[in-house]
Design a protein that fits this description.
Strand order of the largest sheet: 2-8-7-6-5-3-4
Number of strands: 12
CATH architecture of the largest domain: 3-Layer(aba) Sandwich
Bound molecules: pyridoxal-5'-phosphate
Largest sheet: 7 strands, mixed
Structural class: alpha/beta
Number of helices: 12
C-alpha cells in the first residue's frame, strides 16, 4: 500500500546541508575522499568543563523530565546571559529552553501566524524560515539581500514589504549564509518600520558571539522593541554544542507559556543534564569561546584569500558566523550544478546558494568550521575542479 501523506507535508522544505552530508558520506563509503565544507557546526570539542558538568549532572540524577520551559536555574542563567550581552532586563519568566533553537522558530510561527498572515524573511537566508512559514500557511514575503549592498537589507524595500498584514519579521545577524551583519542604524530602521504594525520580530541571534568586526546589536535593545521581539539563541554554535540540543528563546512571558504548551505537545523538555551543562557554559569561563572565534577569524582570512585568487570567483569578507558566500555567477549561475560537480568531481562538499532561496543564484556557501589544513586542501581542490568545469550553457 502506498502511503498517502497529509497535505501539509507538501509544504515543508529542508536544510540541504544534511542532504549534501548524506551524499558525501555515501561517496566516502565508495572509497572517495571528501573535504567537508558543507555543514554549519563548529569542529571543536565542547569545552571540557561543560562536558564534566553534564556528567556530574547525570550522576546527580538529572536524567528525568524537567519542567517544559526548562529548569529554573538554567532559565535564570540564560536570563542573566541575555541581560549581560543585550543590555536589556530579562527574567526567567521571559525564557524558554528548548531542544535546539530551531524549535523557537517553529513554535513562534505555530503560536502567532495564521494562514494568510505575512512573514518577511531574508533571501538568501536560513532555509527553515521559509519552510516553516510555508508550513503554517503564511504568505511569503522574502526580502532580497544583495551583494552590492553587503547582503544587508535594502531599507526602502523592507519598508515596502511591512504593513498591516505582516505578522512576523525574521532577521538574522550575523547572517547564515552571507556572513553579513545589520548595523545599529539598520536595526533601528527595521524597528521603526515594525513598531506601528502588529508584527513581531523573530531575531535569530544564534551567531551573536561569532562576530569579527563590531558587536552585533540586538533589536530587542531598541526602546519599545523588547516586547515585540522573540530572541532565538542557543548553545550550538557559541559553545560547540550542536549535539546537546539546547536552544533558548527570550520573549514576553505569555508567549513563553504558549511555547511551553507546544513543548508539552512535542518534546516535553530539553534534556536535564544538557540544561545543567548550559548553566556551566554560560556562567563559567569564556576563554574557549574567545579562542574559537579567534581561530575562525584566521580561517576566514585563509578561505577568503583563496577564493578571491580563483579566476571568476569573488568573495566578500564575512563579518560574522563561519560561512564564505562567494559569487561564482561568471562561471556558473546555476549554483546547484556547480556544487554537485565540486562534490562528485572535486571531492569538496559545499552548498549551492539556491539552498538558501532564489537570491542565492550564482553563489556557493562554504563553511569554514573545519581546520586550516582541510580548508587549504578544499580550496586547492575547488581551484582544480573549476579549471575542469564546463558550464551548462557555453559563454
Ligand atoms: N538559526 C540559524 C541561522 C542556523 O544557522 C542554525 C543552525 O544551523 C539554527 C538557527 C539552529 O540551530 P540549533 O537548532 O542547533 O540551535
Amino acid at each position: 500500500m502506498n502511503l498517502e501523506w497529509a497535505q501539509r507535508m507538501g509544504t515543508l522544505g529542508t536544510e540541504t546541508a544534511f542532504e549534501v552530508l548524506a551524499r558525501a558520506r555515501n561517496l566516502e563509503r565508495q572509497g572517495k575522499h571528501i573535504v567537508h565544507l558543507e555543514i554549519g557546526e563548529p569542529d571543536f570539542d565542547t569545552p571540557a568543563h561543560i562536558t564534566e558538568a553534564a556528567i556530574k549532572a547525570m550522576r546527580d540524577g538529572y536524567t528525568h523530565y524537567t519542567p517544559a520551559a526548562g529548569i529554573l536555574e538554567a532559565r535564570q542563567a540564560v536570563a542573566d546571559y541575555v541581560t549581560r550581552t543585550r543590555r536589556i532586563p530579562v527574567k526567567p519568566e521571559h525564557v524558554i529552553i528548548v531542544p535546539g533553537s530551531k524549535n523557537v522558530l517553529l513554535f513562534a510561527m505555530l503560536a502567532l501566524v495564521n494562514p494568510g498572515d505575512e512573514v518577511v524573511y531574508p533571501d538568501p537566508g536560513y532555509p527553515i524560515y521559509e519552510s516553516v512559514a510555508r508550513f503554517v500557511g503564511a504568505t511569503l514575503r522574502p526580502i532580497r539581500l544583495r551583494e552590492e549592498n553587503d547582503f544587508r537589507f535594502d531599507l526602502d524595500e523592507f519598508r515596502s514589504l511591512v504593513g498591516p498584514r505582516t505578522r512576523m519579521v525574521v532577521i538574522n545577524s550575523p547572517h547564515n549564509p552571507c556572513g553579513s551583519m545589520l548595523d545599529r542604524a539598520d536595526i533601528e530602521a527595521v524597528a521603526a518600520a515594525v513598531l506601528p504594525t502588529r508584527a513581531l520580530v523573530l531575531s535569530d541571534e544564534i551567531y551573536a558571539q561569532i562576530a569579527y568586526e563590531g558587536e552585533p546589536y540586538s533589536i530587542a535593545s531598541v526602546p519599545g522593541m523588547q516586547d515585540r521581539t522573540i530572541i532565538l539563541d542557543g548553545m550550538s554554535k557559541t559553545y560547540a554544542m550542536t549535539g546537546w540540543r539546547v536552544g533558548f528563546g527570550v520573549m514576553r512571558p505569555e508567549l513563553v507559556e504558549r511555547m511551553a504548551q507546544l513543548m508539552i505537545n512535542s518534546s516535553s523538555c530539553a534534556a536535564g543534564f544538557s540544561q545543567i551543562a548550559t548553566i556551566a557554559a554560560l556562567n563559567g569561563p569564556q576563554d574557549a569561546v574567545t579562542a574559537m572565534v579567534a581561530e575562525f577569524k584566521t580561517r576566514r582570512q585563509i578561505i577568503i584569500d583563496e577564493l578571491n585568487r580563483m579566476d571568476g570567483v569573488t568573495c566578500r569578507s564575512p563579518r560574522g558566523a563561519f560561512y564564505a558566500f562567494p559569487n561564482v555567477s561568471v562561471i556558473e549561475p546555476e549554483s546547484k550544478r556547480l556544487a554537485d560537480f565540486l562534490l562528485e568531481e572535486g571531492g569538496v562538499a559545499c552548498l549551492a546558494g539556491t539552498s538558501f532561496g532564489a537570491g542565492g543564484r550564482g553563489f556557493l556557501r562554504f563553511s569554514y568550521a573545519n581546520n586550516q589544513e582541510n580548508i587549504r586542501e578544499g580550496m586547492r581542490r575547488v581551484r582544480g575542479a573549476l579549471q575542469r568545469y564546463r558550464p551548462a550553457v557555453a559563454r
